[in-house]
Design brief:
The complex is a heterodimer. By secondary structure, chain A is an alpha+beta fold. Chain A contains 9 helices and 6 strands, in the order αββαβααβααααββα. In chain A, a hairpin with a 6-residue loop joins β1 and β2. In chain A, α2 packs across α9. By secondary structure, chain B is mainly alpha-helical. Chain B has 9 helices and 2 strands. In chain B, α7 packs across α8. Chain B has a two-stranded antiparallel sheet. Chain B has 2 domains: 42 residues, no CATH class; 127 residues, Cytochrome c-like domain (Cytochrome Bc1 Complex, Chain D, domain 2, Orthogonal Bundle). Classes of the chains: A alpha+beta, B mainly alpha. The interface between A and B is medium-sized, with 23 and 13 residues.
């Protein structure tokens, strides 16, 4: 072959270049990621999944949930709010008069610092609260964006790229009730009327009630979705594992990378 | 159709003497200018928004400094920041913003045995009453006069300054509360006389 070496070199450069770009560089950047600590509480983050939830991740994978659900929240900005914690003893009236003339919410960092300085100059004490903003944040009742640390225990990481269904990065915090998730998997439209999600009935078993008594695990379905009298719908282990995994998906702790002021610390 | 054909045959039958040839020519200067400008703008944008590939910097933050500034601060951190501001206004010009002191102006504060005391009571006398006469700091003799620089500051502000002095440049002593300052302020009285080193040593730590 006349130009065999050139072709070899071209292939080597193409594949080698993409290998360096897609494998080596990200591994160098994030491969050493370690457990981190949440702000405020000091808890380790992310929290290790239970065995059931770890199995559930493979059920999530096997059923192709990633095809319609993403697991990544974006954030457009931050908004600062100056909160008065104490009017002080020196001149409380001056503080309250000043407060009424200032804008204290929806500020940027500089404006918040200026407002806090003005209030402290007359003796008031303030706290500055941080809130994440953005379409994802408001649409999915999230409190912050997703960061690399959130996926530390994910194998594989299932970020997803299509939102035929909602984002699930924070689903465990948004809907912490397992029974609702189970009912939604069995009959999506029984929970969300116009849901486009297919039913995952094969993760459940329809069986005869024992002595006419429903088992504790049986789904409590609305009349139009219920089975024939004397029968019940119980989740298979796979369904329980999947729900355990869904409940483990949370992006609700403030981290150094994505700080915010948790609602519980607000007075 | 026929016209097209004839056109083509015409162009194909050009005499060989007019065959186009490639000759050397210089690259126009504007290409370099535009390329360099684009490179410059690209790097300026990256520098401003890229965060220099820091793994902890995510949108909406553009740099690690911006992220650091946005971190929720604890009350202690806020006091340190306020103390730094006042220290650099009132104390730094003589004692140095690095706390190392200045020859023939003021003794060092970093590592000074007058600062690294268990409590801050003795230390608080110095800015509230002033200090004059010979003293020994870190093994060196000093003979200076310091006015009561802290007498004009509020209890909270002076406490923050002393907290900053006791917690910076390698000093690792505890916080000073405004109540400590209040107590010492009452002790030195309204029109204080500058203390001497010996008198200061009799004060509790």
């Amino acid at each position: 072959m006349k130009s065999g070496f050139s072709i070899f070199l071209a292939i080597l450069l193409t594949l080698g270049g993409s290998w360096i770009g897609f494998v080596v560089a990200p591994t160098m950047q994030l491969g050493t990621a370690k457990l981190t600590t949440a702000l405020v509480t000091g808890d380790t983050w992310p929290q290790q999944r239970t065995g059931e939830a770890t199995l559930g991740q493979q059920i999530y994978r096997a059923n192709g949930c990633v095809a319609c659900h993403t697991m990544q929240l974006r954030q457009d900005g931050v908004s600062f709010e100056v909160v008065l914690t104490s009017a002080g003893k020196i001149n409380p009236t001056a503080v309250s008069n000043l407060i009424s003339t200032l804008t204290l919410t929806g500020l940027n960092k500089e404006a918040a610092d200026i407002a806090a300085d003005k209030i402290s100059a007359v003796g008031g004490k303030t706290e500055t609260h941080l809130t994440a903003t953005g379409a994802d944040i408001s649409n999915y009742h999230a409190v912050r964006r997703s960061v690399a640390a959130d996926y530390l225990y994910d194998a594989p990481v299932q970020l997803g790229s299509l939102r035929a269904g909602p984002d699930l990065a924070n689903i465990g915090a948004r809907q912490p009730v397992a029974a609702v998730h189970l009912q939604h998997l069995y009959a999506p439209s029984s929970v969300t009327a116009k849901s486009a999600m297919p039913s995952y009935k094969f993760l459940f078993e329809v069986r005869k009630q024992i002595n006419g008594v429903a088992s504790p695990d049986a789904l409590n379905l609305p009349a139009e979705f219920a089975t024939a009298a004397g029968y019940e719908v119980v989740p298979k282990p796979e369904a329980k594992q999947l729900v355990a995994y869904l409940l483990s998906l949370r992006a609700d702790a403030p981290l150094y990378e994505a700080p915010f002021t948790p609602a519980t610390t607000k007075p | 159709m026929n016209d097209d054909m004839s056109d083509e045959s015409k162009s194909c039958s050009l005499p060989s003497s007019t065959e186009p040839t490639a000759t050397r020519s210089t690259v126009p200067m504007w290409i370099f200018v535009v390329t360099l400008l684009l490179l410059f703008l690209g790097f300026a944008f990256f520098d401003k928004k890229g965060g220099w590939f820091d793994v902890r910097v995510y949108a909406p933050y553009n740099s690690s400094e911006e992220l650091e500034a946005a971190q929720p601060k604890s009350a202690a951190a806020v006091a340190m920041a306020a103390g730094k501001k006042n220290y650099e206004t009132y104390c730094g010009s003589c004692h140095g913003n690095d706390g190392a002191g200045k020859i023939a102006q003021a003794p060092p504060l970093s590592g000074s045995e007058w600062v690294m005391t268990k409590g801050a009571e003795r230390l608080a006398h110095i800015p509230l009453a002033g200090l004059g006469g010979p003293i020994k700091v870190e093994g060196k003799d000093w003979n200076m006069n310091m006015a009561a620089m802290g007498a004009g500051l509020s209890d909270t502000d002076l406490a923050a300054v002393l907290t900053y002095i006791r917690g910076s440049w390698g000093n690792k002593m505890g916080e000073v509360s405004p109540d400590d300052i209040k107590k010492v302020r009452a002790e030195v009285g309204k029109a204080p006389q500058p203390y001497t080193g010996e008198k200061l040593m009799t004060m509790p730590e």
